[in-house]
Each structure stands twice: as C-alpha cells, then as structure tokens.
C-alpha cells in the first residue's frame, strides 16, 4: 500500500476534524490526500427557467462537499484530490481505498459510543473491513 491517505467527509464538524488530521498525516508522510464524500441515492432534479435547464443531483452536492473540504486542506507540497463515491459511507470509503491502493484511511470516532457503537458506525465498519491501515481520530468530546 503506497497510495494516498483517504478520508471521508460529509460536511460535519467531526468529519472536518478527521480531515484536518488526515492532512497532517499526509504532509508528515509525504503522500497525497484523497478527500471523498459518499452519496447513497441517485436523486436527480431537472430545473428550468425559460430556455435554460439545469440538472441537479445528489452526486453534484456530494462533490461540492468534498471539493470545499479539499480546498480548505490545501498545504504547500501536498497533493489533494477529491471526489464523490456512490454507496453508504463506510462502503464508499472502503471501495475508494481499494481503488486507489490507499496507504491509510482516516475516520472520526463519531458513532462509536452509546447505542450506535452496538449498532455500528462508519469507523467501526471501516476498521473491520479496510484493505489498509485505519487511523481513528478522536472527534467526539473534544
């Protein structure tokens, strides 16, 4: 595993905290950073006004989230890429890590306490199924 560090984001403060730590690790290790966001539905809406028509989909919104986070993480000497991956968050992160031969996945610990810990969380699923190392960032309770 020699590829980038992969981090999943959803626009939340906890995901952004995990993304910041992923950036710090990528800079320290001298590897690229891949920021992704997952979308599980394929809702598409066609909007029109006069002769203009726009097609808006969940994928567009998801790419926008990943793009905004990626731009906020830019640092000298760091290559940051972004994208949207279809699927549930944990599945999408794992699939992208496999696709890019990721060196590491970084996730936050949201959902790893209380009832959701028993029912499952993104971090828990990723930790048990990842094709590479997983770094879980303490993002809850900070």
From TrEMBL:
Residue intervals passing through the bilayer: none
CDD domains: USP-like
Alphabetized SUPFAM superfamilies for the sequence: Adenine nucleotide alpha hydrolases-like (SSF52402)
Domain called UspA: residue spans: 1-138
A Pfam family annotated for this UniProt entry: Usp
InterPro entries: Universal_stress_UspA, UspA
Signal peptide: none
Gene3D superfamilies, A to Z: 3.40.50.12370
Family per record: Belongs to the universal stress protein A family.
Name of the protein in question: Universal stress protein
Organism: Sinomonas puerhi
């Amino acid at each position: 595993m020699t590829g980038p560090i992969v981090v999943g984001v959803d626009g939340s403060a906890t995901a952004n905290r995990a993304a910041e730590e992923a950036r710090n690790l990528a800079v320290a290790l001298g590897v690229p950073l891949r920021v992704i966001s997952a979308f599980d539905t394929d809702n598409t809406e066609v909007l029109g006004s006069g002769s203009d028509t726009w097609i808006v989909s969940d994928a567009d919104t998801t790419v926008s989230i990943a793009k905004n986070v990626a731009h906020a993480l830019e640092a000298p000497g760091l290559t940051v890429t972004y994208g949207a991956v279809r699927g549930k968050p944990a599945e999408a992160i794992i699939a992208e890590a496999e696709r890019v031969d990721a060196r590491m996945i970084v996730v936050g610990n949201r959902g790893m306490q209380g009832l959701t810990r028993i029912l499952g969380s993104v971090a828990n699923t990723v930790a048990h199924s990842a094709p590479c190392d997983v770094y879980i960032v303490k993002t809850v309770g900070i």
